Each structure stands twice: as C-alpha cells, then as structure tokens.
Amino acid sequence: MPSWFGRTRSAEPAPSRSKLRVGIPRVLNVWSTHQFWVGLFGALGVDPRNLVFSADTSEEQGRQFGKGRGTVDCCYPVKCATGHYGELIFGQREKLDVLFSPMIYTLPSFLSGHVARTLTCPRVMAAPENIKAGFLKEREVFADQGIHYATPFVSLDEPKLVPKQLFEGLREAVPGLTMEETARAVDAAYRALRDFNDRLRKKSREVLEWCAREERACLLVLARPYHMDPGIGHEIEVDLQAYGYPILWAQYFPIDDDLMQWAFGPDLAAGAIRSPFDIRDVWPSSYSSNTNEILWGAKVAARVPWIACVVRMSSYECGMDQPTYTPVQQIVERSGTLFFSFQDLDSTKPAGSVKIRVETITHYLERYAADIVARKKATMPPGCPLLSAGASAAPSETSPRSDCAGKAGARTTPERAR
Amino acid sequence: MKLAGVDVGSTTVKAVLIEDGKTLWQDYQRHNTRQAEKVLEFLGRMETEAGFTLGDRIFFTGSGAGFLAPQAGGKLVQEVVAVAACVERLHPDVRFVSEIGGEDMKTIFLTPSGTGRSKQVFMQSACSGGTGTFIEKTARKLQVPGERLAEMAYAGMSLHKVSSKCGIFAETDANTLVKTGVPVEEIIASLFEAVVYQNLATLTKGNTPLPEVLLLGGPNLFFAGLQQAWRHHLTKLWEQRKIVLPAERDPASLILVPTEALYYACLGCVEIGRDEPAGVGIYQGRERLSWWVETGQHEQKAKEGGRALVTGADDLASFSEQWEAWRARASAPRGATTAPVLVGCDFGSTTAKAVVLSSERELLFSCYALSKGNPIEDAQSLFRQLGEAGFADVAALALTGYGKDLLKDVLGADVAVVETVAHATAALHFVPDADVICDVGGTDVKIMILRQGTVADFRLNSQCSSGNGAFLQGVAERYDVPLEQYAERAFQAKAMPALAMGCGVFLQSDIVNQQRKGWSAEEIMAALAAVLPVNVWIYAGQLQNLRSAGRKFVLQGGTHRNQAVVKAQLDFIRGKVPDADVVLHPYSGEAGAIGAALCAADWRGRGAASRFRGFATITALAYTSTTSAETVCKWCPINCTRTFIDVQLPGAAGREWSKVRLAPGWERVISGNSCPKGLVEDVNEMRQVKAKLEDVKRDYPNVAELVRKDAFRRARAVAV
C-alpha cells in the first residue's frame, strides 16, 4: 500500500456505526460520483442524517474556512476544496468523525470500454493530498479535532478493485468493517449511481422528445462535472435557461440504443467508429474520462438537430481543456450549430461579460435557432426515434410541460433583465 | 567609513547613507522608469550633500539593482535577505513581515528556533494583484489624488466585490461599481480589502501570521486604510485561530508600521554590508554609471532592438495617405434639424456617446461625454448637448453599452441593444461585404466574424486587458503623454524592443524590464502599439488563423482612433493575410452608438411610438443613490451589493413599503445585481418575479439543476 494513502490517527475511539458522522467535500469528481458515496455509506449503516456534504463552493466559504490554508494551485476547482475541508472541520454544529475525500483515479464513464482509459485529471485526483497539507502545516488539525481523515485511492472504473481499495481505506474509520460487507456496499453504491444517472438520462430524453415534437431548440453544455457547482460554473447556463431554452449536459445525455444507432448509424456504416461511444475519429488519445465525454458530447451536438447551440465552460488555466478547445468548436460549428464558450472561469463570476455574452447568444438564438434546427433536420439520418416517440411521451413535472404545446404558438418570453 | 544602501525598486529608488550607526542622508523618489538616471542623481547628491566618497562602501538591493550595482562598484544583496536582516536587528519580537512594493509583494515568517529565528519567505512579482500598483492604478482611474488616497479609510466602510487577483480586472470592477453609483470611498476601501486578502491568500501558504507583525513598503506606510485593513483581518484571524496574545496589549497595537518602513531594504543592505569582507562593495564613483546613462544603454538596446513601427519616411507617408483616405469617408455631420430623428447612445466604459441619424440614416450629429462614473449624469450631459444643437423630435431611441439596461426606463429608450450586435450593425452599414470586424474599445476587445452578411461567430474578451485601449492609455499616462499625442511620439521611435504577447500584467513587467534596458518612452509606446494586434487577435481573440476568417477587415472602436495602433494593425493583418483589405470604420469611435441608432431605425420601422421622455425631463432629472446594508441582495449567498438609484419621474409610484423608503413621484433603478433575481427589492416583489422565473425554469428544464437538487440527497439507510 503506497504511503500517500493519507491517514491520520483518530484521537478518540470511533463511535458506533449508526452514530458515525461522515463528511464529504462537495468538490471535483464527487460531482459525478455523488450517489455512489451516498449508496456506499448508506449500505454500511451510516445514518443518512450523519452523512454530510459540504455546501456549494462560494468565495465566502473560502474566506471563512480556507483563508491562510490555501495551496499553490492555479486550478480553482482544486484550490476551493480548502474551503470545503474547513467547512466540514470547523463549520459543523455536530462534529464529524470522518472526513472522506476519495482520490478517484478512474471514473465509471458510459464511454468505458469504447475509449482508451477513463482516468481523472492527475491534479484533481491528487487534490486530497494537496489540500490536506494546509491543515497539517502548523498543527495536526485532523488529530486536534478528533477527525479521521480518509482519502482512499479508488479506481471506480475497475469495480473488481474497488472493494479492496475502500476496505483498506475505511477500515480504520468505520468500526467493525469487513471485506465482504464492503463488497456488498460497493455493489449497492454502483446501483445507486446507475439509478441516478439513468433517471437523468431519461429526463434528458424527455426534453429532446419535447423539442422534436414542438420544433423547439435546446442548448447542450459541454463542461466538466464540477461546473454544475454554482461556485465554479456560476450557473451561467441558468441565465440562458431564463430566456426559455432547456439545458442539457453531455454527462447525462440519453444513451438509449435506438437513439445511438440512429445518430451514429452513418459513421458506423462508414467504418469511422466501432460503436456509438467510440471517439477515435475525433480524439485518438482518449485517456481522460471527462475530456472524452466532452468530445463525445460535441459529436452528439453535431448530430442532433434540436441542439441549436453548444455552450462550453472551462476553468482558468485548465491544462486538460486547453487542447480540446479547437476540436470541440470545429466539430460543433461544422454542423451549423452555434458554439459559444465561457473560458477561464474562476472564483468570481465575471457578471458583466457573462451578461453580454448571454444577451448576444440569445439574440442570435432568437434570430437563427429555428433555421439551424430546420437545416440540421434536413440532413439528419431518417427514422429519428425522438420524433416517433414524441407523441406518446408522458408529461412529468420537471419535463417540458405538455401544456407547452399550447404556448408554442404564442411564445412566452421570459422576464428579461432590464 | 560611510556605508550606502540603495534599493532600486519597480517604481522608486530609496537610499540611505550611514556612518557609525547614524543616518547621514536618506531619500526616496519615484524613478519614472529611469532607474539608472535616478541612482546616478542620488549618488551625486550623497557625494555633495553628505560627503560620500570613493572608497566608502555601497550595497544595492531591489528588482532593478542587478545591473546597476557593479557599475558603481556595489555589491548586490537579495532584497528579501536585506529586509530580513534589518527586521532581525530592529525588531526581535516580530514574527511576520509584509512588505508591499509597487509591483511586488513579500511575506516573511520568522520563527524562533535555537538561538536565532528561522525565516520563511514568500514573494511574488509576476502579477499586480496585492501590490501598490493594484491600488494606485484604480485610484488614478477614479481620479483620487495621492494625498487623499493616503488618508482614505477602510474601517467602517461598506465593502464591495473587487477582483483581488488582478489589478486590471479590479479596475474594471471598480468601474462597474462607479457606474452603479457606489461612492469612491467604498471602492477604495474595497481595494484595501482586496490587497490584504490577496496577500493572505497567496503569500501565507498555510502559515498563520503571528504577532508581532511588521508592515513595510510604500503602500503599507502611506495608505492609512491599508493599515486598517491589515489590523482588521489579522486581529480577526488571531481570534478565529485562538492565538494567545500578550494580555496587556491591544491586539491592534501588535501590528507595527515603522516610520522608516520605506528604508528597511536599504538599512538591511548596510547591515549585511558591514559584515562583508573589506574589499567588497567599494564605491567606485559615478563614471561608469554616467557612461551607461549617456551612451551604454543606447548601444546595448540598438543591438537588441527590432524594426520600428514605421520603417522610414516613405512608409509613414503612404500610411498617412491611407489614413486620410479613410478619414475622408467620414462626411461631416449634417447638423441639426427639427424633423424626426433617430438617436443611438453608447454608454461605454470610459465615455458615453450619442449619435443622431436622419430618417434616411445619414449622420447628423454626434457628441460624447467623458464618463464621470454616474450614468445618469452622463446621459444628462449627452441630451443637453443634443438639445443645445437644436434637435427636438426623437422618433426612436436605442441604447447600448454597459449603461443600457440601467437607463432604458429612465430615458424612455425603445430598444436596449447588446454591444456585439450594435457594433456589427454599424460595421455592416458602411462595409456590407465585411468578413471580420475588430472592435477595440477601452476595456474590451470584440472580434466578430461575419459570413454572408450575418454574424456567424464572435470573440468577446473583456476579461483580458492585454489588447485593449485602457492598457495603452495606462502606459501613456505613466509617461505623462496625452493620448492624442501617442501616435506622433510612437512614430518617432527609430527602433523598438520586442514585447512579449500575453497577459497585460506580464506585459507590464516586460515593460519595466525593457525600461531597465534603457528603452525610452517613445520606443516602448511604439512597441506596445506593435504588440497590440498580436494581443487582440491571437491572445485575447484566440484567432490564430486570420486567413480563415476572411479578407475584408473592418477596424473600429475608440482605440482605433490612435494612428499608431491602426498602423500596427495594418502591418499585422497584411503580414497574416497578404491580400487583406483593411478598412477603418469612418466613425471608429462612435460605431457602437451608430449601431444603436441603426437598431432604433429598425425599431421605428415596425411602427410603434417612441417612449422617449423628452429633453426637458431628462436634463431636469433629480436623483439620489443609496448603497448600504439595506440594499444588499439577500436572495442567494452571493449577496450582491446593490445600489438603488432613485430618479424623480413624474407619475412614478414610489416605494413607500421599502426599507429605503421612496416617495411617490420617484422611480427606483436597482443596479449592481448579477442576476434577474436581484432586480427585485424585497420579498413581495420577489414572489412574483420568482414565480415567473420558476415557471420558465419548469417549462425549460436544466439537467444541472436536477443534479444540484437531487444528487447529494441522502437516501434512507438500507441494510446490506
């Protein structure tokens, strides 16, 4: 076992399982593995009320809990983790027993098996070690506070390895933990994550079917999972949503077989790719999970007519995103789809420039979206399952409402910022 | 034996002359980038005023000392070592030092160990965030004189969000705050806050600054508000981290700002020099340094220099001819009329502009007002000018620029046009077959790529300052050159240094570096104009392949009024696209306002009557603005600091229910919010707006909202 499996001795004997309080920083790849950890600790008998996620990232959080403990890192999504740690250590009314911050080495991507690897960004993976340093510098904060710091190294894309990795990583934190129990909990964890992902993909499909049925445009966001954090992605897509466009994210795009065979049929027939999830035609070095998903998302956007616009988000100085800017833009624009990017996102929302960009995007969407959808439809492969399924789609509360059919004619314009 | 310590910093030179522990002479002065000249002057004065002679000893420190020290026979002492040596001797109880310079900042942690104290040093000099320049740059923009800045307070002020990491971003933030009516005092206090925050955030690296604390360097010494900000943050930090303080002392008194704060590096030099072997640092006189100032620096830079902005008289003549040809396309405004007209206003970052078009879309009149920071005053100034010119019947009014939303209702504008669209409309009106529009304004760069007469793509960059006019202006101001004379001066340069493309902050360091090599103001200004196109297109615009964008380029925006910039643009574009057709927009600086007026014309074409309030109403507008705890937006954790600008408008309902009560006959304009929610003052209004927003959101779902809502939900415990 490598020594960097960061572990500090707990100052007091651990409480019983149901009393055990576990805190998880809501950062980085936890934004795509959330329900895995919820499922895991639930299955291990941790009371749901005792599983605590830190709040969304905010500058306030950083100032209040992270000041002076910062690390030298230009990656804000990594840097802000200090505030999350601080909040979990110092900001809880009821003290935590365990601070759980996994070093996720590979991710369980839907592209797994179709791409070379599903590795995480090394900087993101190693963040728990990096962030920890700010809390050990002057005094052993974890030990002082009686908090067990657990940072197991996990290869989530290799389910067979995970039980052992988590057992080793948690045995000191969770009293009476056994290997068998861990294995069962890991199964439950994968199920919980899969159920969640499936549910969101289904929702995305409902949106697409509604768009197809109503001849309406939607937007696709291409970003890393943590850009869903309001403190990191700054909810830029919400500003666009407010103008009346549904927002899909590539991570939760529907991957049903009928849709995939339709969208990628011509490429498969031409032999350019081996499966709908193969991205060798655009991105041969497919090692990074999040990067792969962004490239795949660009391909999907190019093929689905109702995605009239792609919005790209990336954080300041992101070395992983840098090489993808041009290919992603080219794939999207070549299909006649609008492409706008918000780069160099950092701790503050550049509200002024975001606003101008949002207004420009919506100006062009208002002018061109219908044309774009029509042009893309004219060249799409026949037999689109989104169109055929449309009529029978069941309305649900969070999907585009069925009564939108009535509004399509007299389109409601959302309240604008004055 | 006399010992001299000379600190050659990024903005000032400081020197002390010591004999037997007594200070014989000391001074500090800004060197205005002429470091060698200033050092030479100081040496001369030390000789005549204090008897400094050959054979005495001299030690140098500071970022500009490396080259100068050997010229006078001096030895170089690393600046942090120098400061630490001085602190060590004078302040045995100090555990933390912050030294803030013009363009750098340092922290030193002193930890007692064994017989002495171990030192841990952090410094950064690559970025302006957290340095003196950070404050001064913005203060200059806000027209706060140095003496007033020194006295301005931090304590008791409402603070606003100002980017702490970059001086250039901060200036833009400050600008936005001004536009929303935030008082200058609060903005300055927010800058002090940002500097302390930046120092603590980047230069403590997990250490806690422990008492006693010593604050050094010009900004820490001169700015009372900065000292207050340090006292506030450090005492709060000590309280939070439960640091045990000496019982009998007021925590604030543990933070010291010595009157000699400027000279610590110099004194440290002397301190270290004293222990150097006898033959080291022997003063050799001024000869070599004089030679360098007179001759040497010119020889060296001639070796390094690149081609100038103009290659000779012919080049300049043919450019001037081209310039005149472009200018000739701008017909003189036709003047006032009482017929119905179209008005477009552009409330930009530095100026507000208005143009008047006839119903046939011909330019009748244009005027501008230098932005004083209050959009309502700017608007009044514009409409006063329009009224005085003799216009009376406004058939349609359109606004663009930062102030467009704020002023739309107050002025009764018919359309608020986003800048990008306004600029593209203006360009296409004059150059219908344009492929690319390059608009360089005061604080942003817009590149719009057109295909088939429509905007197909655009690159908008207001986050990066490197290509914009404000940066150019900032440098010109540093040289005390009026912007109108920029081109004339830059064209005089026979050679120029090669500045590196990139971030404005690095560019600033690069300029300092080139100055050190002896490049003059003209030459640096020429080089800056030459690097601007690279920054505009490649760095800010991220457009590597100009050829793929097209061959007909339109240059517009206020920065293209500068001939030096246009010349550089022309050479750059033709270098990339040899058959390029470059056109300077006939009304380069007014393009935004013209675009707005053209949009007003389109609007009028739809047949509605204008909502324009009329000249008399606008010029007589009375208003007040309030920014206080009561105006802070409470609807989300961001807590935007809003400003309520209350404008007297006949018939307005007022807000008697408000915490900031507003009488009938007044209308409230809320600004400073960053989302539509913030336009709503309180819970009553909120309910309606929220319902509307939620309706929209429900109708048009966002998958990320489902993640935010459900992904971290903790399921009921299930036994395995």
Highlighted features:
heterodimer; A: 418 residues; alpha/beta; Rossmann fold; 2 domains; four-stranded parallel β-sheet; disordered C terminus; B: 720 residues; Nucleotidyltransferase, domain 5; 5 domains; five-stranded mixed β-sheet; 25 helices; 23 strands; 42% helix; globular
Mean pLDDT across every amino acid position of chain B: 84
How far apart the termini of chain B lie comes to 85 Å
Residue stretches of chain B low in confidence (pLDDT < 50, at least 5 long) are: none
Largest sheet of chain B: 5 strands, mixed
With strands numbered from the N-terminus, the spatial order across the biggest sheet of chain A is: 2-1-3-5
- Determine the CATH superfamily of the largest domain in chain B: ATPase, nucleotide binding domain
Question: Strand tally of chain B, please?
Answer: 23
Helix-residue proportion of chain A: 40-55%
Low-confidence region ranges of chain A? 1-12, 390-399, 401-418
Q: What is the largest interface, and how many residues per chain?
A: A-B, 91 and 69 residues
Number of H- or I-type helical stretches of chain A: 16
